[in-house]
Structures are given as C-alpha cells and as structure tokens.
Amino acid sequence: MVMVPVQTLLASSRAFPKALCIPGCLDAFPERVELDPLPTWQQVGKNLTLRCLVDGGTPRHQLSVMLLREEEVLYRQPVDVDPKNPKEITATVLVSRDDHEANFSCRTELDLRPQGLALFTNVSMTRQLRAFDLPVTIPKLDTSDLLEVGTKQKVLCSLEGLFPASEAQISLELGGYTLTSKSTNHRDLVSAMALVEVTAELEGTQQLLCVLKLADQTLRAERILSIYSFPAPALTQSQPNVSEGSQVTVSCEARGGAQVVNLTSVPSIQPRPPSPKVQHTLTARARDNKRRFSCSAALNVAGQVLFKTRTLELQVLYGPYLDESDCPTNWPWEVGTQQTLKCEARGNPPPTLNCSRKGDGAPLPIGVVKPVTWAMNGTYVCHAESSHGNVTRDVFLMVYTETNLTLIIILVTMLAIVLIITAAMYFYNRQRKIKIYKLQRAQEEAMKLKAQAPPP
C-alpha cells in the first residue's frame, strides 16, 4: 500500500496534472483536520473524549478518519457526509497512568487507489495528555498534639498512592503562617517535613494545616495543636550553707498554672495535698548531707496531665568524724608484708587527715602501700581537721611474725586461763566466808535466846 501525505501531494500537484485532474481535484483533500484541545489534566480511571473535526475532502465515501495514541489506532470511522459540512468524530478512552504525557492525534486517509492514484493521509497537530491519580484518603499529618514553648518539634505530612508524585506541591502551615519545609517524592509517595521552633507567640490553640495540590485538585489535612508553657518547678533551700544543727526549709514552687503534687525524699516526708507551693523544714544532721529531695509538678493541657520533676541535693556542713568503721583501732601487720593503712575521716567540707606515732611523731602514710618493718610498731594518733572542728583517734599498729604471733596467742590464752581460775577461786572463797559468817550469827542468836529464857 502506498500512502502519500496530502502535503506532499499538494506540493507536487503541478508535476502530475493528469493524475490529479479529477472533479474538484484540489478541493478533494480535507481543508482542515483538527483534534480538539485536551483537558489540562485528566484523572486516571475517568473517560476522556477525543474529538476530531474534518472539514472538506472528496469523495467522501473514500475518506476515513482515525484517532491515534502515538501510533496506536484507537478508533477508525469512514466519512460519508456532505463535504461542505464539517464532520466531528468522537471516541472515548479510559485513562490510565500509562497515558501520562502520551501524544494523541487525528489522521485522515483519502483512498484514491481506485482512480489509479495512491492512499493520501493528513495528520492533525498532536495533543499531549497529562494524567493524574489521587487516592481517596487525605494527607497524613504526623506530630504531637502538644507542643511546649521553647522546644523544636518535627512536623511531617505525607500522602501515598498519588501520580505523578513529582508534579505534586505540598506545604505546611501553622497558625496561618507557612512553615519552611523540605519536600521529597519517591514513586507514588510525596512528603514534606518542617522543624517548628515553638515560641511564646504561638501559645494556645493553633491549627496545623497540610495542603497538597496536584493537577486541579487540592487535598487538605488539619490538626488542632495545643501549645503550652510549662517551666520546671523551682526547688530551693532557705540558706545556701547549712550547718549541722541548724534549721533549713526546702521549698518547691510550681509555675505557669501548674500544681506541686509531690515533694519526696529518703527518709520519707509526710505527703501534702497539691498546691502551687510546698515546703518542708528540718533540723540538719550529718546524715542529711547529700540527701536528695525530689519535686514533681503537674499541668493539665487539653485533658492530658503532664509532669515535670526537679531534684536537689542538700549540702550539710559538719565537723570531722573518725569512728571504728572509718578508722579501725587495731592493725596487726606481719613483718615483711605489703600493707596499707586505710583510715578515712568523714566531714563536709572534707577534713585533712594525718597519723603520727606517739612519742617520736613518726608519720604513717594513709592509703600508701608500704613494706612492714619492726620500726613501724607503736601507737599512732590520727588527727582529722576542717573548718568545722577536729577529732583524734588512737590507732594501735602491732608488727608480728608467725612465731611471735603463736607465742602471743599462747601467752594470752594462759593469761586468760589464770584470770578465769583466779576469778573462780575468789568467788568460791567469798561464798564460803559468807556461809561461815551466817552460821556464826545464827549461833550467837541462839545463845542470846537461851540466856534470856527463865529458869525452870
């Protein structure tokens, strides 16, 4: 089959006058072949009507019209009406995503082969279709319903199932102001993310709005956010420096309409009903140093109860302490071994501590590993001192060998036995003397009674 475009034929009509010299030869070809403009956007799944207008062309019974998608023939129809009246050919197409950016056109074919000529074609100007698809759902907003002043909050809006995602425009608004957001798209998903700096000007109820535009469609999603201010409770003590024996008051005060719901410590303190301010007074003791107090405040925001907690560690100033647990009295060390004197004074501020031997003042380092020698034997005085007082404690360091220790144990055991025997003999003799004394007293009483009796 030979197909000759009409434009080619018209350009060459003078070269082939006999071939074209049929009745109305130059008017035989359609004067106009035009495809109506397509909609700016056409939704996927909806019908698209294609309209082609053909004006002129004879003989009509040898003229046909085709509607094309690219080179695919969608519809074909002969033209058999009066050539003086334009002919409109329509076809309906169900639009799919594959039709996006596809080219549509209208083509006429004038078959003059029965007259010994060729098949002549004429094509309209192509029209490009832009197709779009939207899900039935609205965009999804991801963020907290409660935003605190002074914080930064991420806000995300996304929609899945739309096409083409690259053509979608998405924006975020808070309180009527457009947020600076970053938009991304991947396949059929589009999203926008913004980092909101929550300021005091936004405090109250605000509308968060996500607007998505694609083609001639606009989708909206909104959330009502509660923006609040909730400073942590103020937890203070009545005086910065608390000395042992003095009174101190620990105060917890809530702000911004909140209530103090708990003031706790170990050891526990008596609970109080919620109020804007709670206090606890105590007489400071050494054991209260580093005692932790915890204060919890509650705020009701849009039906949700929020909590904030603050802690305080009490610092009590007290003089040095040196007791048996801090610095044991007896230290038996074997000669030749490596030993360390473990002696620690308690106090706030931390006291200085040193130990020296009675008599010659020889120092004994604390916390230092030393080889034990006979020369270290003796009684040491450990002295702890701070700005809040001082205290001393005697420490007995006894240096021994294994043989020496055995002898000491034997002597101590023998001494204990002698002491036990001596004590037993003492108690035995004492009881015996008491019995003799009581017997003598009884005899004397009997003789007195006998002497006082009248003669028979």
TrEMBL record:
Q: Which UniProt keywords apply?
A: Cell adhesion, Disulfide bond, Glycoprotein, Immunoglobulin domain, Membrane, Repeat, Signal, Transmembrane, Transmembrane helix, Ubl conjugation
Topology in membrane: Single-pass type I membrane protein
Q: Does the keyword Disulfide bond apply?
A: yes
From the Swiss-Prot or TrEMBL record, state where the protein is found.
Answer: Membrane
Q: Any stretches that span the bilayer, and where are they?
A: 405-428
Q: What GO biological process terms are annotated to this protein in UniProt? A: cell-cell adhesion
Role summary? ICAM proteins are ligands for the leukocyte adhesion protein LFA-1 (integrin alpha-L/beta-2). During leukocyte trans-endothelial migration, ICAM1 engagement promotes the assembly of endothelial apical cups through ARHGEF26/SGEF and RHOG activation.
How does the record describe its quaternary structure? Homodimer. Interacts with MUC1 and promotes cell aggregation in epithelial cells. Interacts with ARHGEF26/SGEF. Interacts (on T cell side) with CD81, CD247 and CD9 at immunological synapses between antigen-presenting cells and T cells.
Under which name does UniProt file this protein?
Intercellular adhesion molecule 1
Source organism of the structure = Microtus ochrogaster (Prairie vole)
What taxonomic ancestry is recorded?
Eukaryota, Metazoa, Chordata, Craniata, Vertebrata
